[in-house]
Structures
1.
Amino acid sequence: MTNPSFQPYDNPRVTGGADPCRGRVRWSPGQSLFVCIMYGGAITGLVFATPGAVALFLASSAITLCLGHSLGMHRRLIHKSYTCPKRLEAMLVYLGTLVGMGGPYTMTHTHDLRDWAQRQPACHDFFAHRQPMLKDWWWQLHCRIELDEPPQIDSKTGVANPHFYQWLNDYARVQQIPWAMLFFVIGGLPWLLWGVCMRVAVSLTGHWLVGYFAHNQGGRHFYIAGAAVQGFDVRGCGLITFGECWHNNHHAYPGSAKLGLFPGQADPGWWVLVWAARRGWVKDIRLPKDLPPRPELMPAACAPGSYCAASTGRGV
Ligand SMILES: [Zn+2]
Ligand SMILES: [Zn+2]
């Protein structure tokens, strides 16, 4: 059965009428075991903390989250919000894989499925982070969703480095091993636990936490009419999320390379991009003004229950 209220969708990777509501959340043993090992290593790391290990954790987290996850995976591979040489993209995507959430095709598929579902008039609680926090944590870190009628998502066509990305995707978790060995040789057990387990555990938990709040509460400037799930800005988290917390802006302008659009919205990922653009390493940076107009995009005042909605009937 095709969902009769299927929304027009501007992501060419996603096709086919589908149902974002009906399906079940299933335990994913491999993912769950990986998360448990990382959590176990992180807790053990608390006993073996050294200044060097903590410094390694901070530096490696910043590099993998900012350059890898935000700039490589999210703003470049998934949203194509700027262009760069193939080798630079491959390096950034490799760093993004080290975050521990999956390889390039897994990340693209997970992102596209959630984004598509959130923009439909209704969707499963899994996509909306609608359940209590502990249950949502279990769902997002240890499980996957199986929709009865999923859309087709083509994560592979047109990517810059298909063979490398396929290999990276197939061996995403294995990528931690050479770094674990290197850190162990240099700094012993504390470096291994903090440079790999603590970094991955904190990155996964932080990513889930930001996703949870960014779809439930916070400030906003924009409202997407007809979408089941709205994005919100998670205030005070600009620096530690490298700009990814300005999620209301991202729902409004998914193709924008700049996430912090308003005064006071720190966006370190954007600062790095501007720095790289000055050196000619990245080009064709897209901003909200470069994106096609979206009729469903409205000021936040048009959200249901607001003055605008009450007076014009729009956005209800
Ligand atoms: Zn979102
Ligand atoms: Zn996105």
Note: Residues 186 and 192 are 9 Å apart (CA to CA).
2.
Amino acid sequence: MFIGVTGYNHESSAALVDRNGVLIDFCREESLSRIKGDKSFPKRAINKILDSNNLEIKNVERVAFYERPLSAFLHIVKEASLHMPRSLDLLTHQFRNFNRSSVSCYLDFSKFFKGLETKLIYSDHHLSHTLNALAYSNSKKDICSVVVDGFGDRSTASISQIVDPTEINELWECPYPVSLGLFYSSITDYLGFAINEGEYKVMGLASFGNSNSKSAKLVRGLMDWDSTSNKMISDMSFFDYHLSTSNSFSSKLEDLLGPARNPFVQLNPQSSDFQRCADIARGAQDLTTYLIEKIFTHAHKISGSRRFLFSGGVSMNSASIDSLAQLPFIDEIIIPPSPGDAGCAIGAAYYCYIKSIPQSNLNISKPSLFPSIKEKRNYEFFTEKIISNEFNILERNADDAFFKAAELISAGEIIGTVLSSSETGPRALGNRSLICDGKNKDAVENLNTVIKDRSPFRPTAPAMRYEIAKKYYILRPEIIDCYKSMSATCKCLKDNVSLKFPTTHVDGTARIQIVENNSSLDKLFCKLEPLGIEILANSSLNVSGDPTCFDLVDGLMVCSRTKLRYLLTDLGLLKRKT
Ligand SMILES: [Fe+2]
């Protein structure tokens, strides 16, 4: 057995791969600690995957950390030291927190999992991204990997040629501090949203903006592609993320775009500052799409490949993928369901596997979108107590529960789901979801505002079967797998009724989910389609700001904290008593 681990900088997680190359388990630390974006050493996640799979430390052959900690530390210090005294704050922070950074990974393993530290190896950050993406590709050979993120242990973007899993050659890199990911985070911060969390809001806001506005044009000028050197370039004087622990952008950006938005004031389409913010978001989105396309064009030029893996935090920019897929040299783009740093645990686990198994025996199986198949289902006493005190079980039999849930959805109700194993990625795909009739405007609005308290400019994703999706949306075969994990938006067909669906965004796009055969939502559609429901609105089951629910207790807590009344679970369909 092989374990991959991420932590300290972004979301912590752990993954388990067996000697047959199968991803057995994956868990985010935030799922268990209930701290959104938890980046501490993932001791709960490691414990969970060991416990759920009846493993002891002696059963683990190797464990890999997803980056080279000292390299990341030195790159940040080296860059900051060039800008003294402005960077004094960052340098002081780096050295004061040296023991709490990822360089203490070895010590944390020896402290919490005695014996595992002797089996610890380190994978290159972008190699971890690449191997995570490679696992989800049907073909494991002769494909090009593009990684674009905030910052790895050396670079902020890279292109690699995959000859086979044992021979991955890096062809190009963008060195820190020029970073498309950190640019987008800085604009997220400027617009008053939390970094690593509010990027989705910027993407949703961009649809209200005007590409020809002055603000959008100014933002587009902040970065560019130099076609002589084939590098991304940026005027770093507008940014502080490489100099400061507290500021991502400099006062010069405010001189250019006006004052940063107050994060404590809610932004909605009626706000006086809404259009300016939307135009700035539009500029950031346009620039991101432009630079991603430049990187892919260069990747094609230097690798000759027409098939690509795309990972790193920037690959979660689902609004860019549709136009990327239209580039003439693209045959296929694979984006893993968890393309950010949390998913690097999967890549790191496969790094152990590749280092440990003879090349002739390597066989990396395409993982399930819901990998934790061995999760224990022994609901404990207090869970049953909560259910008996607070809920009625309407139907216990799974088939009857799904049928009753379909009837309720048809009547305009909103249902929460806690079914089987949770999703690998950040997007709920039906097992930890809030769902309602995707064509029922009132139900979708209730889901967004009454239950979720979402920003009014963020659209809700529609989920459906492939045959239904073809009737309403322009689907691109190059990214067909991306629709299964909600990794790409698509346009509604021209003059199509879907333009009026409540799940369609203001720009006529939707971040659709095509449900996988035999998944929970696919089974639910067996009951829904005879009732005339062919599209579900699908959002993650959580209260705004919390991590997505992980287990049944989390789902019950959402019911107690919101107006959600129904929960479809492995125990049956539950209805809150009051
Ligand atoms: Fe990364």
Note: The chain has three domains: 2-136+339-361, 180-334, 381-576.
